[in-house]
Design brief:
Strand content: 15-25%
Structural class: alpha+beta
Radius of gyration: 30 Å
Largest sheet: 8 strands, mixed
Strand order of the largest sheet: 6-9-10-24-23-22-19-12
Shape: globular
Distance between the termini: 70 Å
Number of helices: 18
Length: about 600
């Protein structure tokens, strides 16, 4: 058997050498990260996938002149002796910072032929176009490199934990049929079936439900999903990955209990040291409560501020600006209490008022509680003592607090923006924490003002709460679904649901949204047919891998945790994707390209 010391390029990696290796002859291979010439003494930081080792050469060494002429990012093989660093040259910030390697032999394996378009050994930012065009170089940069290593570790950890929890990893098809719901599909023309197309799956939704019908009790996969939708900071155009799982004979609570320990352990294990992670069971917040108290169905629970509805306190008050808006335009009034805010400068309140005007409000009303019986602020004089006491009680005010008001038909959303603005401006956000919650009891339907009809508000395959009776007797806009999102730090990680597995209930649910029975039979033929043979109750969820990594890596852009992402225009600048098909390919597929029409 070949010994380790007989390997061609290296005996150790660049993050492996320690004091107990002192005196050994070693071989290292890697990239020239940085060269420092100290006049007769040359220091080389040699970098590989694992880390950096400092190598030294003296002017009388045989390979000094070769090393002195090396370019950054040259690929080299180095042989030499491990030495203990002197006390004044120890680098506590490097794992190998107690040793260095005296270079005795050096072989250049490859050198850059042209000037690098971006530097690897600096923390400077570079244009995204440059970074994505030369992504293989960008991935050499330690921070981005570590993000991809983190991604691999997290996915391996999740796979292990899901398997230990009794879930089977099963792959579902990549080429499938087009889905009529959700985002735009990516279509793939069929060569053998003229005029027909495959679609890349937006999610394995129907397949995983069919696996439940097939009797597999617990399924999961790290599933690639494809959606032709616009990019944003927390969503990559084109493709993304999710931890997709489904369970048979499962209630909503069973799904929560299954995934909460795994999410807790992922964020405890891979988050920054001493991070605070919400212990399970995670808080359950209804959709209505989330919209009321946080102004969002994706609340960031690190923000301590709470929104209250105080419309009744103003509808007959002496403050006519609000009272008229309520009676004439159906406005509502939301309030946000900021503890100990009286101490803030006048400029803070003025800037808050300016912020309100910037988003289209006439201004921002507020009152401050000086003592149990004394209130100040622009609108305090228009309110009676009883109204002031009622507002203070609803908002749980104490002396020193200030309450800010929003009056608008759209006050629920605006109050959420105000809550975020106040928290950010006053730096109230909880540091070093991952705060999870479930948003539950989503509306089954909503009214689409543009289409002038009732539509599904979320997942059309969700079981309505109350089943057929609710669909038959209740106002559709009052029906809740067994549907839930998991949210962390204001980012939606996943949607999930207990599925509608009864054919009659599914037909009725789609009928309310304007679809005929034939539509369900045509578009969901496999699933509806399978359900007619008898399907067990089932449900699941699909936390987004990319979004989890974005939180763990503490980056605001999802492209930082994807090895080869698209840009915002859904292009791969490195590979030149999307690209034109040649004429022979188009002919084989019997496709002709029509010139784009001018709009």
């Amino acid at each position: 058997m070949q010994s380790r010391n007989d390997t061609a390029f290296r005996t150790h990696t660049c993050n492996e050498l320690r004091l107990d290796h002192v005196g050994e002859k070693v071989r290292l291979a890697g990239f020239i990260h940085r060269i420092r010439d100290h006049g007769g003494l040359l220091f080389i930081d040699l970098r590989d996938h694992y880390g950096i080792t400092q190598c030294i050469l003296q002017q009388d060494d045989d390979v000094f002149s070769i090393a002195a002429g090396l370019k950054d990012e040259s690929v080299v093989n180095i042989s030499g002796e491990v030495l203990k660093r002197s006390d004044n040259t120890v680098n506590e910030n490097m794992d190998s910072g107690l040793i260095e390697v005296h270079v005795e032999a050096l072989e250049i394996l490859a050198e850059p032929e042209v000037l690098l378009p971006l530097q690897i050994n600096v923390e400077n930012s570079f244009p995204e176009e440059t970074r994505l065009t030369y992504r293989y170089l960008d991935l050499r940069r330690p921070e981005i490199h570590e993000n991809i290593v983190l991604r691999s570790k997290v996915i391996s950890f999740i796979r292990k934990r899901m398997t230990e929890a009794g879930f089977l990893e099963i792959q579902t098809p990549i080429l499938t049929s087009s889905s009529p719901e959700g985002a735009r599909d990516y279509l793939v023309p069929s060569r053998t079936h003229h005029g027909k197309f495959y679609a890349l799956p937006q999610a394995p939704q129907q397949f995983k439900q069919l696996l439940m019908v097939a009797g597999f009790d617990k399924y999961f996969q790290i599933a690639p999903c494809f959606r032709d939708e616009d990019a944003r900071a927390d969503r990559s155009p084109g493709e993304f990955y999710q931890l997709d799982f489904e369970m048979n004979f499962a209630s909503q609570e069973d799904v929560f209990v299954a995934i909460e320990p795994i999410l807790y352990d992922v964020f405890s294990e891979f988050g920054p040291k001493n991070s605070l992670v919400t212990n399970y069971p995670f808080p359950r917040i209804t959709f209505d409560e989330a919209m009321l108290h946080y102004g969002s169905d994706k609340p960031d629970l690190r923000n301590p501020l709470i929104i209250e509805d105080i419309t009744n306190s103003f509808c007959k008050s002496g403050f006519e600006a609000f009272a008229k808006e309520i009676s004439a335009n159906g406005a509502i009034v939301r309030s946000v209490n900021v503890p100990d805010c009286v101490k803030e400068s006048r400029s803070f309140f003025d800037k808050a008022n300016d912020w309100a005007k910037e988003i289209g409000l006439p201004g921002l009303g507020y009152i401050s509680m000086i003592s149990d019986s004394e209130f100040k602020g622009p609108i305090a004089k228009f309110l009676t003592p009883a109204e002031l006491d009622e507002i203070a009680q609803i908002n749980k005010m104490s002396a020193g607090d200030s309450v800010f008001f929003v009056c608008s038909p759209d006050a629920a959303k605006i109050a959420g923006m105000l809550r975020t603005y106040l928290c950010t401006t006053l730096n109230l956000i909880e540091k070093g924490a991952y705060r999870f919650c479930w948003i539950v009891d989503f509306p089954m339907y909503e009214y689409d003002e543009e289409l002038k009809q009732i539509v599904f508000s979320h997942n059309p395959f969700s079981m309505p709460q109350g089943g057929m009776e609710a669909l038959s007797t209740k106002n559709p806009l009052e029906i809740k679904a067994f549907q839930y999102d998991i949210v962390c730090n204001g980012i939606e990680l996943s949607s999930g649901a207990i599925r509608n597995h009864i054919p009659e209930i599914m037909y009725k649910a789609f009928e309310i949204a304007g679809y005929e029975k034939s539509h369900v039979d045509d578009k969901f033929r496999a699933m509806i047919k399978a359900f007619k043979f008898g399907a067990p109750p089932h449900g699941g969820c699909a936390p987004g891998i990319d979004r989890m990594l974005m939180l763990l890596a503490n980056t605001s852009n999802i492209r930082e945790v994807i090895a080869f992402p698209f840009n915002q225009n859904a292009q791969d600048l490195m590979m030149g994707t999307p690209s034109e098909a040649n004429q022979s390919q188009l002919k084989e597929l019997q496709i002709s390209i029509i010139p784009k029409m001018k709009t």
